[in-house]
Design brief:
The protein is α+β, with helices and mostly antiparallel strands. The protein has eleven helices and eleven strands. A four-stranded mixed beta sheet has the order 1-6-7-8, covered by helices on one side. A four-stranded mixed beta sheet has the order 4-3-2-9. A three-stranded antiparallel beta sheet has the order 5-10-11. Strand 10 and strand 11 form a beta hairpin.
């Protein structure tokens, strides 16, 4: 008998308070890297009501106007409505940024130091990272998270195009996918909650989103008369963004990765330069797993590796293909180690990470995007992996 189950994933819009903070943190990172590619950045942002606090540790040669960066990021999101407490031109910005700890810098820098075991560049912290890929979608991502992202992107595209005047920046989406024998066969439930202007009625919102977002973005073959659609189910969503809820960098890590389907090591991405393996090694893991699937070595692949602070080599590397492998898993793992290097410096070099590209990653997932600058989405190592198995 076919095993049947339902799996759900959510996405959030650019105006969600946590994503506002991620966006600001990555805007600061990009501004640093644009001037000084060797910048060390760990930028955290907090937002509530009309206040934004930017803090963390930054060492850079860039001379930046942090208040201007914050306002520009908030303006680009779309918080420019006079009826909103959180407004790009009216927020109060507090800056509590300091330099990176010299003790951390000593471990990360490619230089000898007293008490340091190696002169190589080490990991910026201990921790474990995961990368994942599967053949459920053209992007080699799990279907639930990709469907949820499609809805969120459509909402933003429609809002920024000015197609309707009542859409506001804060929004969330969620899609529940039916699986049979571990393959997506249908959608059981779709949820969209979008902030809106005062005065628009629920029927107008629901009819518009049904036609222009849900039916336009989700595959028709996966929807049927049993699919449940919940659009603004509370009946009112006028107060949103940081006015309605507190925002903080790094609180949407499952939205950022695989929607709960692939595992996550726990470290957030936004606001961190690539010396932080929380970010760069997670990107590396995605690149490796995607190339394994693209090479036909498995239909599902998860890669896990872990680091010690200041040490250049991972302390472990593990590959799991969930019994979908077409060749022996140990051989796949050996091929991965032959083709890829997991040293922090080599990750940065292989993926060309010292560039101001990170604002492109902030919203609608760090994985599954078709953009030549997002190097970890390339499948350029698939043939090398297959050759390494011969």
């Amino acid at each position: 008998m076919a095993r049947r189950f339902i799996f759900s994933s959510e996405s959030v819009g650019e105006g969600h308070p946590d994503k506002v903070c991620d966006t600001i943190s990555d805007a600061v990172l990009d501004a640093c890297l644009a001037v000084d590619p060797k910048s060390r950045v760990a930028c955290e942002t907090y937002a509530k009501s009309n206040i934004v606090i930017v803090g963390g540790e930054i060492t850079t040669k860039a001379d930046l106007d942090y208040t201007k960066i914050v306002r520009n990021a908030v303006r680009e999101i779309g918080y420019t409505n006079d009826d909103d407490v959180f407004h790009a031109d009216k927020i109060f910005v507090n800056n509590i940024i300091t330099a990176q700890s010299p003790d951390i810098a000593q471990g990360v820098d490619e230089a000898a130091a007293e008490g340091k075991a190696t002169a190589e560049q080490g990991a910026g912290d201990q921790g474990l990272m995961f990368g994942y890929a599967c053949n459920e979608t053209p992007e080699l991502m799990p279907a639930p998270i990709m469907f949820a992202h499609r809805l969120g992107r459509a909402l933003t595209r429609i809002r920024k195009a000015g197609k309707v005047g009542w859409l506001r920046p804060d929004a969330k989406s969620q899609v529940s996918v039916i699986y049979e024998d571990n393959k997506p066969v249908g959608i059981s439930n779709v949820v969209i909650s979008t902030q809106h202007a005062e005065g628009v009625d629920n029927d107008t919102i629901r009819d518009f989103l049904m036609e222009n977002v849900i039916l336009a973005e989700l595959p028709a073959a996966m929807l049927n008369d049993k699919t449940e659609f919940l659009i603004n189910p509370t009946g009112r969503f006028v107060i949103g963004g940081p006015q309605g809820d507190t925002g903080l960098t790094g609180r949407k890590i499952i939205v950022d990765t695989y929607g709960g389907w692939g595992r996550h090591g726990g470290g957030a991405f936004s606001g961190k330069d690539p010396s932080k393996v929380d970010r760069s090694a997670a990107y590396m893991g995605r690149w490796v797993a995607k190339n394994v699937v693209a090479a036909g070595l498995a239909t599902h692949c998860e890669v896990q590796f872990a680091y010690a602070i200041g040490w250049p080599d991972p302390v472990s590397v593990h590959v799991d293909t969930f019994e979908t492998n077409t060749v022996d898993e140990e051989k796949i793992q050996d091929a991965i180690k032959e083709v890829f290097s997991f040293k922090p410096r080599r990750i940065i070099e292989q993926l060309n990470l010292l560039r101001p590209i990170y604002s492109k990653t902030t919203n609608y997932g760090h994985f599954g995007k078709d953009d030549p600058e997002i190097t970890w989405e390339k499948t350029d190592k698939a043939e090398e992996l297959k050759a390494a198995l011969k």
